Amino acid sequence: MTASTLVPIILGTIFLLLSLRLLLSGGMLKAIMRALLGLSLLVASAIFFLGGYDLLTYKRLLVEQPVATLQFVKLAPQSYRVLLVQIDGEEHRLQLLGDQWQLDARTLRWHPSLASIGFKSQYRLDRISGRYADIIEQRHGEQTVHPLQVSPYGFDAWQVLRQVPWLQEWVSAKQGTATYQPMADGAVYEVTLAYGGLFARPVNSEAKRAVAGWR
């Protein structure tokens, strides 16, 4: 657990204890003020708890690292079964329609002053999608988009960090996308994440032939 996930949980605990203390104390006008302040702290504690819990779904981002391998099996024309294995061994078995695939990831990069006290850059694979090579098919064909990770309890810390202006000074929350690559029977790809984004590399001969023929 890094500082970026530990700090929100600690702050959430502090706010929770303060809110309970205020809510449980007596007096009329003072009680109302205490109640309002206590409820505010209770909301703040919930936000920090949920934010910290959501950040636990992210993995540490190094300068450059492999994040996943993808294996494709053709089921029918423009229909493929995909086995996506993340670097930690987590597997996703999915079906994609179309001719090409794309993988998206979310990244969090903290301000140097926060990085110096233990806030590490993080990432989370977001979704994988299929696309048709023909523009008419892409417009009218069945689309397949599969989320790979969802935020616990619906609280999306990444979206909050992107939308609150003053937080953007302290953390860069970006979406990284690998360029579309062709799907082919038996093809294997490795996906690497670096500060420049996601990069897909064909690993075996089937994938290399597909890429060579596609380009």
Compact summary:
With 215 residues, this protein is an alpha+beta fold.
Describe this structure as you would to a colleague.
The protein has about 220 residues and is of the alpha+beta class. It folds into two domains: about 55 residues; about 160 residues, no CATH class. Helices cover about 35% and strands about 35% of the residues. It has six helices and eleven strands. The strands form two sheets. Strands 1, 5, 6, 7, 8 and 9 form a six-stranded antiparallel beta sheet that branches. A hairpin with a 2-residue loop joins strand 10 and strand 11. Helix 1 packs antiparallel against helix 2. The mean pLDDT is about 80.
Query: What fraction strand?
Result: 35-45%
Which secondary-structure class do the elements indicate?
A: alpha+beta
Oligomer class: single chain
Total number of helical segments? 6
| Low-pLDDT segments | none
Number of domains: 2
